[in-house]
Specification:
Elements (H helix, E strand, L loop, with lengths): L2 E7 L2 E8 L1 E6 L2 E5 L6 E5 L2 E6 L4 E6 L2 E6 L2 E6 L2 E3 L5 H18 L5 H24 L1
Parallel strand pairs: 1-9
Antiparallel strand pairs: 1-2, 3-4, 3-6, 5-8, 6-7, 7-10, 8-9
Length: about 140
């Protein structure tokens, strides 16, 4: 049995189709949703989303947001969603390396703690993009 998956970003609807399952990056860890899943709402962290359609597996990098599961409807609201085929892998790898270097540079400085979260989010997003692109 299928579930209806809708992914929404500030730019609009990124995905809206019936799927077999979806795996999302929850703040407490990744979780999967199948038909008949318990109703709930949770925060999402930046990471990889995996969609099983029955015919194919899709990978996407998503940023922070929320997911709501109600009956066989999953609504994902995130800051950004990039599917593997949309990601320039070489550019994503450069962004990940740059973000990691910025994190290392901040370590042990007075202003480092203040900027750490910002750079950590940039690094997480870059890594998610690389992972999704390599898998897709």
């Amino acid at each position: 049995m299928a579930i209806d998956l809708t992914v929404v970003t500030p730019e609009g609807q990124a995905y809206d189709k019936a799927v077999e399952s979806v795996v999302l990056p929850g703040v407490e860890g990744a979780f999967g949703v199948l038909s008949g899943h318990e109703v709930f709402m949770t925060a999402l962290q930046t990471g990889e989303m995996t969609i099983e359609t029955g015919a194919e597996t899709l990978y996407a990098a998503v940023s922070k947001g929320f997911a709501e599961v109600h009956e066989d409807v999953v609504t994902v609201m995130v800051g950004s969603c990039e599917f593997a085929h949309e990601i320039d892998l070489d550019r994503a790898k450069v962004a990940a390396e740059r973000a990691q270097a910025q994190l290392e540079e901040m370590r042990g400085t007075d202003e480092g703690e203040e900027l750490y979260q910002e750079y950590q989010e940039a690094y997480s997003k870059a890594v998610a993009r690389v992972t999704a692109a390599e898998r897709g």
